[in-house]
């Protein structure tokens, strides 16, 4: 299918000149959001991520603060001038996020696997004149067509600024990584769609903060347009994905040494 990708038109992180989205796995409290955002902003990060709606594997885990966190993300915009990004899993999340002024929406790995939800998200976004950027994570299973299909559904519905996020693929086997990267799959997607901006998500690929720096570097070496990385002001006490989150200081030590390998974003 012929898909045209418009430039994401996102601010680049300097000195490396790549897209860098950073912030906690989940928005937990207003203080945690603002403290983490302040430290990232002071280190030059221009785009802040935090999930409000969390699709957890087992019931009984923290499932996110929901729409209550939207004003917290707005404070991040107002106080630090950062763009904001959050995960959406249905049309209602999309409408609430767009109406609150969120700049970037991403579709999580579990949602990319569901064509009905992707259609709901796509058609809801397309109703708005001022559209957010939409980033599509790979599905949890290693199925390139499901990933490409979600991108095609968004494009056919009229969504303009689309990118992809490589977060690795789940496995039942013992593995160094939480979600082994299977680099050949995102590479094949970029071959099919040479102008598709691809971001690496080393936090969800590795599941361990010690491995995050190496996968950040590999992603940029693979000519990705940038990174989305989890960072929390107090990672060991995080309410989700504690083992893979880094403090802003730890993250910035890594990101400030990396450079973009590709020219177009
Ligand atoms: C996340 O970004 O925190 C998340 C839940 O990601 P994924 O959909 O990749 O599991
Ligand atoms: Mn997470």
Automatic annotation (TrEMBL):
Keyword flag tRNA processing: no
Protein name (record): chorismate mutase
Transmembrane spans: none
Nuclease keyword on record: no
Organism: Falsiporphyromonas endometrii
Residues in coiled coil: none
EC number: 5.4.99.5
Key words of the record: Transferase
